[in-house]
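From the thread on structure requests for the teaching lab: each student submitted one protein with a one-line request. Submission from student K.M.:

"Model Beta-galactosidase from Micromonospora echinospora, tokens only."
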Amino acid sequence: MTTKAPWSDGRLCYGGDWNPEQWPPQVWREDVALMRAAGINLVTVGVFAWSRLEPEPGRHTLDWLDRVLDLLHAAGIRAALSTPTASPPPWFSLRHPDALPVTADGVRLTHGSRDTYCAAAPAYRDAARSIAGVLAARYAHHPALALWHVHNEYGTTCHCPHAEAAFRRWLTGRYGDLDALNDAWVTSFWSQHYTDWAQVGAPRATQYLANPGQLLDFRRFWSDTLLSAYTEQRDLLRAANPAVPVTTNYVLGDWVPVDHARWAREVDLIAIDHYPSTADLGAEEQTAFAADLARGWARHGAGRPAPWLLAESAPNQIHTAGRMHTKEPGRMTRHSLAHVARGSAGVMFFQWRAPAGGAERFHSAVVSHAGADTRVFREAAALGAALGRLAGTAPGRVEAGVAIAYDAASGWALRHPGMPRAGLDHPGEAAAAHRALWHAGVTADVVPPGAPLDGARLLVLPALYLASDATIDWVRRHVDAGGHLLVTWLSGVADEHARIRLGGYPGAYRDLLGVRVEEFHPLADDEEVPLTGGGTGRIWSETVHLAGAETVSVYAGGAPAGRPAITRHRVGDAYAWYVSTRPDDDTYRRLLTEAARLAGVTPTCPDAPPGVEAVRRHDTDGSLLHLLNHTDRPQRVPVAGFELLTGATVDGVLTVAPGGVAVVREEPS
Ligand code: GLA
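Reply posted by the TA:
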């Protein structure tokens, strides 16, 4: 039987995590009826069901899952069937104490939550393959099966002896011999020179600062270890029925030891979970950034464009440190359609029904503890209808003239405690550049270094600390082809091993930028330095010397007072900008708007009022303009075409309701 990917019939995916194992069968039937009422067409099942699928080692109880999948199929709802390997049952941990994870401090964790295993432990890997194999054998040809969802949010880490042995094997593969490793890690410093592989360990708690090269390689190694745990499951699922796509849901966050760009070539679909961490407009900024990041991985990861999907999002509350904030009416819909606007193949929630107990009992759900007669359910059903009206429009190509580089390893390297300042944050700087452009109405791609820069006239390197020779070559090729470049502080300071590129910062890009940085002057959290022309710099400042570039603005105070803060260097017909501090938001927005303008990139919808997000996507039928009104007032936007959500013809001006969304099939101009 040929199983088609859920998005292949032109419909957008709509659904979420469903946990029938938490409920008796009469609730399953009620759930499926409610799903149909809400327009749900895809549900993720089985994510944490291992102890219900294998209550004792080797004894499998699958009848309930048979019934669940049959019920879904009869209702015309498809399943993203999970392997449950993110949550081994209690019997597994008791039987295999060596498979429990060990923290960097040497503490072995115990069973009691989820994700409590070491991904390098042979017993864990055997058990994971075994349960995945059982599911593959039973369900690979089930008519409800649309997608395999392996595991859940790979991201836990371990420092146990299994992990350490695997690290040594990985290092042997990477470096070949100890001389190369000693060189890469600069072990001449602090007497760390290794003479035997047995001396090389995982970076456990140590007396003072750990070796930056060792820490960085351990992160890379662990990302590869988790990836191999994924690919071995994927391979056996694929072997059971090659027609069913396989993926795993990415968890975003600076703690995650996964290089998602490297994983992109191993999945059939990029799936991200997205939960904003702030309740103010930052939630909308984060949503746009996460979606653009996912699109970048999907477009560039595999060397072939893959689809991407919002695999989890909250139907209601935003969880911030300390409390949950209710999403105001319409906000869930705006967040969901912001992902669709930026190319998602659909919208999935965590979770369908709120559990009656368990650690996440108060996490929001489409069907809450109050049932389905709720504002949240009604909004979810309305969104289901809206997604139905957008059928046939996805995914297309999002129009973006700027590319922002994003590199997990640079983020990891900047977190080393021996940096000139605490809190250095490459993902945060990428998000800051994206936010500045978002407020300017300019859509950006977020791409891994080395990705094809098709269409991007301006490339931004935001504190892209590590620069391999290949990355330098990639940047140079962009500039040689007439592209503009904007580089911020701390970019290109080190090579891929976190060794400093000498001769003045930023060693990788000095020539291109026409500057030489002599000294860093990191700022305190609450410190600002004034810049000429208005605005301030934060976080960081530097002593910059011109070496061909011209000055755009000057430090009007602080340690580098009187020296250039922002410069630009004419390279052919383009500019290579250097920004040696983090400008305040307004200054950064103006700076990036100007750099984009000079590169020939203008806002997506120049006449859209402030607070209206505009994203244009091109598909085979022409262009679609998505308008998201994040204000509490109606907003008028000049546009002509056909509004898909209401079915109204738009003659020249469209009024988008407060907090509302419009999707306009534009008239060809
Ligand atoms: C993640 C997990 C879910 C759940 C949600 C809560 O995305 O995959 O199981 O814990 O977070 O926000």
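TA comment: The pocket of alpha-D-galactopyranose is lined by residues 152-153, 273, 275, 312, 350, 360, 363 (CB under 6 Å). The chain is about 30% helix and 20% strand.
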